[in-house]
Amino acid sequence: MALSKEKIEYFEKKLREEKEAIEKELPSVGRRNPDVPGDWEATPADMNTMVSDKNELADKFEEMESRAAIEDSLEGQLVLINAALERIKAGKYGICAECGKPIDEKRLEAYPAAKNCVKHTENGR
Question: What is the pTM (predicted TM-score) of this model?
């Protein structure tokens, strides 16, 4: 059964709230890539530190790797949310991209950016 207009509005609100939260968090671990519109890149926490101790240097590299992983995850979530919002605009939200059948509301409640039904889910998306 297709989603009602009210349910679609409900999921759109959830997606927009999640998008806003991610957009607030992204600047804490990265910056917009000036060369690629819409892309983000991780930034080190302290870019002006002179490091001579090997352990301190290793800690800085480890912190950068962690920030890069967080930035990558947040950016990936943002891409999926934006795609779901585009499906809402196109009138295709809540419809499996693989089989064209409605996506179960429980799945959308758990993961509003879902583009596929459970049967056609790849990588948990």
Answer: 0.75
